[in-house]
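Quick board copy: two proteins, each given as sequence then C-alpha cells.
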Amino acid sequence: MTRDDYERYAAAFNARDYDAVFDFYAENPRMAFFGIEITTRDQLKDFYGFMHSYVRETVEIERFAGSEELAAVEAIVRIEATADLTREILDARGMQQFFPIAKGEVQEMRQYIHYHLKYGKIESVGCALV
C-alpha cells in the first residue's frame, strides 16, 4: 500500500463511502478496535452508519509508512457530534466502552493505526490512542 492508496482510502472514509472503504479490504478481514470487531461489509456499514448518524468523523494523516505487508499510520481523528450520543443510546447498542458526546462537542485524538496487508489489501487492523 502506498501513501496515495491510503489517501484514497482515507478520502472514502471521510466521505462515508463505506463500500469504497471496504473495497480496500481482503476477503475475510478482521478489524478490531475499542472492543469492536468487524469482519464483513455489512458489519462495517452497520457500525459506521450508526456512529456517523451522531458524529462527523474525519481522519487527517500526519505520517505514513508502507510496505508489501504493513501500512502504519499516525493520524489525528476528529469527532464532531452532530446529535447527542447518550449513554443510554450507546448501552442499547452494546457499546459500553464508548463515551457519550453532546451535539456540538469536538474531540481530537492521535491514533496509531497498523494495517496488515495481503496481496495489497488490508487483512487486519489494529489501533491505539494517545
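And the next:
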Amino acid sequence: MLIFWVIAGVALLLLVLTVTVGDFLDGALDAIDFTGGYLSSTAVLAFLATFGIVGGLLLTATDVSVLVASLGGVVAGAVVAAGAGAATRSLTHGPTAHQITSSDYVGQSATVTTSIPSDGLGQISLVVAGQSTALAARADGPLPTGTGVTVVSNLGPGVVKVSTTSPSSHDSN
C-alpha cells in the first residue's frame, strides 16, 4: 500500500514543480510522443498521481487485492491523463498560444491615442492576436490623436516607428 502513496506523492511534487518552475520533462517526452501532442509531462504526472491516489484509496478503504487496486488506478489514471493531455494540447496549440513579439507589430494598423510630435514620442493603440496593446511611437512628422497609422519598424522595446495610413487602404479595412 505504501508504494501507491509514494508514487502519488512524488508525482504530485513533480506536477507542482512543472506548473511553478516550468515543463522540465517535456523535451524527453517529445522524443517518444506518438500521440500528436497529447503526451505531456502534465499528462504523465497526472496519470501517476491519480494511479497512486486511487490505488492507495482502494487498498485502504476496501479489501481488494493489489492487482485490482492497480487496475483501478490505471483506469482512473488513464481518464485523468487523457483530460490533462487534451487540456494541455488545447492550451499550447490554441489560437492564443503564440507569444507576441515586437516583430508581430510591424505592418499592423494602429490608431494614434496620444499625439505624436515631430521630434518626440506619442502613443498608438493596436490589436495583435486579439490583444489590445499600447506602444510608444515616433513618426517622420507630427500626427494628431485619432490618426490611422501603420507600424513600419521597431525602434526598441515598446517603441515603434509609424507612418500614416493612406486613405484608400484605411477605407478598405
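Board note added afterward: The longest helix spans residues 66-93.
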